[in-house]
Amino acid sequence: MKPSGKNLDYLIVQALRDDSGYFSGEELASKLGISRQALWKHISNLTDRGYDITAVPHRGYKLVSSPDKFYPEEVKYKLGTKFLATQVYYYDAVDSTQKIAWQLGLEGAPEGTIVFTETQSKGRGRLERKWISPAGGIYFSLLLRPKSLLLSEITQISLIISLACLKGIKETTGIDCQVKWPNDILVSGKKLGGVLCEINAEADRVLFLIAGVGININSKDLPSGATSLHLYAKKKFRRLDITQEIIRQIEAAYLKVQQGESGELLAEWSKSCILWGKHLELKLSGKIIEGTAVNIDDKGYLILRVDNGTQHKVSAGDIVKVRSCR
Ligand code: BTN
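YS: structure for the whole thing
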């Protein structure tokens, strides 16, 4: 059967990538079983999608660079994961990737399915906040079906995903970021990104979980208090490299959590958290509690020491509002 449409575009990119020099148009067309004219059309389509392909008479085509877009074939290229991103959906613009991934979850999409977009018109943050999503950021929602975790144990997923983001950023850019319980990613005290976990559960059984990740990479127009890697480091970054490393880190961490080995990861997360020893005011289902942030426990719950000396444990799901630290 002949490959068709986008699939063919992908095969062309693959063939050009495998060949560091020029690939003769005639050979490439015959390899794909299409005419040279059809090949030219596909090359022109790829150019429109941001691929830089030079065509030199008598020599052929050469791939100079690929775009920094979350095209499924780019996300999967040399990714090397077992199950994460085996299915990738890509959009130029959507209201929220959470909504799309949720629908895919209901339709039975496999664990590891990811939905990417370049911009969102109704990006959602925690606590019903808006997530401003201009071009230049990383925005994706990931479908997970954690078999071994109960609803009460899900807080740690949010934490290990934010840790995976930290590691992915450090590995690819060298920049050290921090976390703030439960889901903030910070750089030099400003909000760089966040993780939003939405859960579809039946009693205490988790049917699926949608983990949404938003990180400001090359974006400039951001709300006050927020920053991007570009604003912080005064240079642009390749989002795909960062994203691929984050995906690898999420998969490795998630597999550990599923095997009941989240201890080391939570300890690592705790080392990067900026809250310890700070005074917090939390709104828990309508009641305000104040105290000093001590650490997290083995489920990822926040341990808060209140003024009379007693300790409260708070799950991410409990919080309605977190006041800034004094
Ligand atoms: C937060 O810090 O409040 C969490 C922000 C999560 C934003 C991401 S962007 C991709 C996904 N789609 C959404 O609408 N939200 C999440």
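YS: worth flagging: The domain at 5-65 is CATH 1.10.10.10 (Arc Repressor Mutant, subunit A).
IM: good catch. Also The chain has three domains: 5-65, 72-271, 278-324.
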